[in-house]
Protein 1
Amino acid sequence: MSVPPHGHGPQPGYGQNGPSPFQQHYGPGGMPPQQSPKRSFPTKTVVLIAVAVVVVAAGVVIGFLKFGNSTSNTHASDCMHIEKSGSTTTTKTVDCADPGANVKVAVVRSSRSGTCPRGDYYRYTTGGKNHRVLCLVPNVRQGDCLSGLQTATTTYQKVACTDPQKNAEIVKLVPGAKDRSACEGSGSTAARWYSDPEEAICIKS
């Protein structure tokens, strides 16, 4: 009887049970490890997510259009609507032909400490990150009637001349006027004058 060489056990013969190829690759039991099933979203869920994204994007655009119209981008010759309700004053840039456009921007200063030219300008300082000074004049034409016109406020509004709230009427505009004397003989009771651009507004209270 022969003895196997030292360090070697008996070798399995033909038909003997050796390690299964499945065991070699996958470990005991011969079965591949269980994998977590891949999660899949129903088509309906994917569609709802896509719709939600579109709705949010549309809301951003609408919000920008609604709230992005501020005086921070207002330039000379633009018109604004200024209205006061209680202690709150609201402003927005509008077309000069808009009935609510009660002031026009004559001059813009890029610094908060900027001053307006000589004349009866309304000085308005914008809010936001970059403060600017807007020098405003009434956006009026001859024959316009106003309610709430006062020396120190821009919150007057255009009204029908038959409106009992009317307290002023524009009787004459004098482009190129050098001073308020341009309104003499116009039937006005007050005058406002501006140096840039030069103009006198003749007002009957």
Protein 2
Amino acid sequence: MSQEKDARRYLIPGLERGLIILMELARSHREMSFAELAERMDFPKATAYRAVQTLEYMGFVRRHPTTGLYSLGVNVLRLGFEYVASLDLVQAGQPVIESLRDKTQCSSHIAIRDGQDVIYVARVSAANATINQVSVGTRLPAHRTSLGRMLLSGLSRSEFEAVYPDGELPDTKPGAPANREALWELVQEDGRRGYVIGESFFQFGISSVVYPVFNGQGDIEGVVSILVPVHEIPAEDREPLRAHVEEAAASISGMLGYRGGRAARQAT
């Protein structure tokens, strides 16, 4: 028996179908009619209808009372926010990034890595912020962001290749590393430096200062960053901003049990 067949033998079909519907609604970023949902599902309409009705009954799907269109329900959001709130990183870091925002007058964030994505798990906005703001739960490609580079710097070579099994990266938009090897060299430099100052790396006109947050085992648990609404950080501001972010990251790391001495990583 193949590994895939062996894994699927224990799946619960109804649960699998319900989760597929939720993922489809999440990907669409809009309300959808049942006809649209059913068209995208690879199972009978009657089965799709029962799954949607079950999800609606449990509050994971919401049906608009006027249009009849379906969207994600409040219980999906509640699950997500309760998960984020349960992270020690967020609990420890929220007051720290609020203080960081006050000191730097810049929007401040905490992010973690999920596969090839960066996920923002906490944020506070600067007063009168005019640039586009990310929200908790926003995902961005790790290889194209300063935050992602810092998160990837904690991986060994084998772990890195498990995240990016192909030589080519998911996309190579202007400014992005050309391929996996270029990204590996970049994150190695970031790791040796210990922080990233990204100037218009992901989006022109926006700079960032990023530091890693370590857990009690000395591994990178997440990152702390500030968003600076300039193409290039003025020389006189660079060192003070860097020092503030470094202090914030060290504070959170200490609360997570980190006592110095980053865990050794193997290059193989």
Protein 3
Amino acid sequence: MMKKTTYLTALLLLTLTGLLAQNNVYPSAGNTGLGTTSPTAKLDAQLSANLPVESGIRLTSPFSFSSTSSIQTLFHLRKTGRSKGEFFSQFVVKPNGNVGVGVNWNDPILNNKRMVITDNNPNALDLNVRGFALIDGQNASLLFGATGGEAFGQWGIEYNEYATVKGLNFWKPTGSNNFGNYYMFLTDTGKVSIGLDPNVAGTYNGNFKLYVADGIMTEKVKVTLRSSSDWSDYVFEDDYKLLPLEEVEAHIAKNGHLPNVPSAEEVAKEGIDLAKMDAKLLEKIEELTLYVIEQQKQIKELQEQLKTK
């Protein structure tokens, strides 16, 4: 039984070796085929679904190879230049595993950058991704602006999913000017904050879209109203009830502010709506105009009475 098993095993190995040999061609000139007898490239490797292979083409380097070997590249795709002996790297894999596309094989940048894609032309597009591109993982970031040699560049954009408020964080990495987080933050609910920590309670109080620390300076602000009825022209309607000045005086004495105007405490706590506040101020100006008109009528009437005496 042992001899029969050994014989069958040997026969199987010979058969498999023969099949593989029949599917390979190694001509002295022309194309070389692995797994095919009709190669259409200088090296044409084709896999068979019937053979239990783990990889198509594999290159294995020994342990500590990158620190002890004098080999400069594991894989190097290049094109010739116009001068004799001139070559330009197109794709290179260094012994330390770093990969370069469009960068020369001996560029020092490949010593400490896992992947470099460039053609050294500032006016050319180095990378074009069509379709979705996912940057995933804890603290995964897009980094920008390492022209000064900063390890992580000058700006970063990351999805902050482990904080109290989740969203997109625009931050300054270590080694950049003014390192820090939350220069701008876009929450998952569409709210935007500038210069505020989104994890501090109360940062996003109110149903607003933009929250800014330290103020805003602008040359122009335009505020619209939801309806024309929100403006203050109703003061001039015939049925508008204008408070007597005595009641206005009593209200000021009691509350310390004009009627229907928020107090200092309310403004400090809730802030003000610019459109509503402008309308309220105009309301008071229009009321004041009505008081002046009424007083002018009284003055004129008194003058007429004085003339008759």
Protein 4
Amino acid sequence: MSTHTVGPLDPTTGPVLVVGLGNPGDRYAATRHNIGHMVVNELAERNSQRWNTHKAGAAVAEFRLGIGGSKIVLAKPATYMNLSGKPIAALLKFFKIGPENLIVVHDELDIEFDTIRLKRGGGEGGHNGLKSTSQALGTKEYLRVRTGIGRPPGRMAPADYVLRPFSTTELETLPMHIDRAADAVEVLVEDGLTTAQNRFH
């Protein structure tokens, strides 16, 4: 694993790649593990973007944030979660983006549902999508928007919990949770990590 220093997010140096982690197909679309997909879908919808298939193995949408704003590349890997790293690395190479301008949006077991946390680097907490990404990039120093889904109830295995749909109670506030995570991505791009942390933590 590389330990080289990665600079701060800087949209003036080139595009920002925002990746929503998840599993492909209708079977997984509404599950907790796919909240990353839900957040980038919200960002695409806000900006009236359609998804296009990219040769890197992902669905991609490109736009500028606001009038004359930062260029954003949204992506949803077409692979299963544990193979997310390969298409992410390929997209970074294609768009000539460094890991400092990568934002990964993912589900987070260790954070309560309806809670957002942002950070750069750190461990993967057993998340296979993050493990694959760190391995493929040779660094853990990329930005993460950690979208809380909470711990499984009782003795349910985390692997089963993340692949189940949200509960009826959670579904009542899920749209607001997704909306807030999308807001966090926009603030992260426009104002940087510290400002975004101060606003959403």
